Please model this.
Amino acid sequence: DHHVDSPIIIPVGKGVVGTCALTSQTQRIADCSQFPGFIADSVTGLSELAVPVLFEGEVIGVFDTESSQTGFFQDRHQYLLEKMALIAAPRIDACIQRDKLENAVVYLLDKDKNKKQEAKGSSTSDLIPGFEIGDHILSRLIGAQGPTTLWEATQTSLHRRVLLRVLAKTDRSQGKLFHEKAAIASQLNRYSISKVLDFGEDDGRLWIAEEFVPDTQPLADFLDAIHRLPALPQGYFDTTTWMGFHIASALTYAHSHGIFHGAVSPENILMTAGAAPRLMGFGLQAQPAIGVTAESLVLADLRASGATLYETICFQKPDLDNFVPPSLIRSQTPIAVEEICLALLGKSDSLKINTMAEAVAAFQQFKPSRKTKSPNDSTGTFMRWLKHFGDPP
Model:
């Protein structure tokens, strides 16, 4: 809700502010009209006070204030503004580092995606941006899982963007199951579940169109990018529990309708800046064998959710036969987060989670610690992905 009225560009070394930035010295000018190189804005003949914001000996900003009275600013004004600059300096630097971190993550995501697209070229060489499938034109490859690729596409008849999941032309054995997935998912209507809009077949290719959300990335790509960073962003474990809460809520909703996922994984969770993660891929798992109970299907989703949470903490899949607790891999893992992960995997002696509703309650009990920082972390909070979690709307 904030904006700048009539912004101007002030080069370093020019005017009062520019001189302050160049010299790292406070500039208290009684009459700006007499100042060499004064840059006039909407008011002339005023006094001005400019104080450098210093962090680790480097100027990272300038606090500037003006008055329409000449000689207005006194020692007390200078003292107050310098104290404000001193207090604000680490916070301003944190914002700068946060922006650098966000840009780095976006760069890594794009770079990694390009590599994956090149690696997948042999299996999807006939699907490229601009290719038409049904009423859709492919725009961008988002991800792939087995014989299925996920694309950003445009539905030409309605002039809208969609997520288009396409089954490889050669894999006809899964055709029936693929469209059963669409029928199953179309029954679900929740903010944290990818909404199925349409499905069909074109020249032997089966496809499903789902609701599009801008700037969507699979959780798997997000984890791959974060893993490349020298340290976890501050608040990272708050992000993992926020994500876990919403995925558990989505599964609770699905289970209440008698629908089970069977393939929860980082590849089937879509992350979007400023929005709750979305679960997709209902029905991709093979149909359960005859005689399989609802309790066993619930258990399968619990274990898969635990494995996904484990992977967000440790950046590797759990080896259940030679199990290593998350805290032995990531020593900064909060005790409560590890306990939830262990319970979902059936490895906890103190916490038992038998339903997704119980998982939701466990995540709700977790209280984010805003004072906890990752070791050697000076990058600030990764706000693009971090959201406070609470009751779903």
In short: The longest strand covers residues 58-67. The longest helix spans residues 75-119. Confidence is low (pLDDT under 50) at residues 370-393. The domain at 15-101 is CATH 3.30.450.40 (Beta-Lactamase).
